[in-house]
Amino acid sequence: VAATIAALEGGEAALVASSGMGSIYAAVMSLVEQGDHVIAQHNLYAATTKLFRDLFPRWGIERTLVDQTQTEEFAAALRPNTKLIYLESPSNPLLHLTDLKAIAELARERGITTIIDNTFATPVNQRPLEFGIDVVVHSATKYLGGHHDLMAGAVVADRAFIKRAWEFSLVSGAVLSPFDAWLLQRGLKTLGLRVERQNRNALALAQFLEQHPKVARVNYPGLESHPQHALARRQMSGFTGMMSVELKGDLAAVASFIKSLRLAECAVSLGGLTTLITPVAAMWSHQHTPEQRRAIGIGDGLVRISVGAEDERDLLADFAQALDK
Asked: How do beta strands 37-41 and 62-66 pair?
């Protein structure tokens, strides 16, 4: 399964872990040590943010968080002891993009390693190593597995990096079980088919929601209204099945909307055959205070949608009737 994922991303080698955070932890901590400096984005998967924000200071690792949409902020944050630039594009949950080629060039000329979480895009839609990024990580629980029935992670890089990360993963204990590896390999066989359908469904849903009077904003890079749509077209071959939507309402309105959905289910995973929806403010409250959520643009009306492979007409009809209620 590691060889399959490495081939999909165009990398020399890969390792698999027992969760997405297991792969992220192995990749990051096999690289940095006390006294190093890390640059990362404000918008990241919540547990990754907690690793950088709360745990790094305990271990004597410095970090600077920047706006991923502004390449100049990465450059301004560089220090002599910068060891790592960590990216996530598109980001969770606001679907912001990072200019991968520009950041890779910025880092490489200074000998800084770059790592990207490519979970939302998948290698079907985006292959970061081709833009000069050094390491790709995945929560394989999501699109790579694709059936909501396993937990796994993956790291793709050159053989030297994978050897170092593998040795760390053995100590940290995030080793994937043989049965989950088998489930993951099964899911990878249909990855291209699933993602193609999810891309198409997501674009149709995003276009529908963008025009709905009860929706304030749709965050989806496939929309021409997305502020980074041109960048998405340059570095992505498809725009993913992920989006977030700001409803015109409070937490009660979000709860009413989600409860009214018949086809889409409320669940915190993503990337599988079933359309899943999550109230972002509620989910992120486990890792962020209300002030921290607002600072990164997560309001009470925000919902994250992982679009599945259902019939497009059924999907649009479901969201229409829920919004009407």
From this structure: parallel
* 3-state DSSP helix/strand/coil % of the chain, to nearest 5: 45, 20, 40
Residues whose CB falls within 8 Å of the CB of residue 165, separated by 6 or more in sequence, listed in order: 15, 26, 27, 30, 155, 157
Estimate the crossing angle of helix 191-210 against helix 312-324, to 10 degrees: 40
pLDDT tens readout for residues 207-237? 999 999 999 999 999 999 999 999 999 999 9
For 195, the token pair is 């993602």
**DSSP for 258-316, written as a single string:** HHH-SSSEE-S--SSSS-EEEEHHHHHTTTS-HHHHHHTT--TTEEEEE--SS-HHHHH
pLDDT digits (tens, 9 = 90+) for 249-281: 888 999 999 999 999 999 989 999 999 999 998
Find all residues with CB under 8 Å of 267, minimum gap 6, and list them.
148, 276, 278
Among 42, 286, 11, which Cα is nearest to 123's? 11
- Residue 135 β-bridge partners: 115
DSSP string, 33-67: -TT-EEEEESS--HHHHHIIIIIGGGGT-EEEEE-
Instruction: Report how far apart, in Å, the C-alpha atoms of 276 and of each of 96, 244, 262, 304 are.
Output: 20, 11, 11, 8
Burial environment of residue 235 by CB neighbours within 10 A (0 to 12, 13 to 18, 19 or more): buried
Beta-carbon contacts of 224 under 8 Å, excluding residues fewer than 6 positions away, are none
- DSSP symbol at 208: H
CA distances to 91, 246, 256, 295 from 205, rounded to whole Å, are: 19, 14, 19, 28
Handedness of CA 198, 49, 12, 233 (dihedral sign): positive
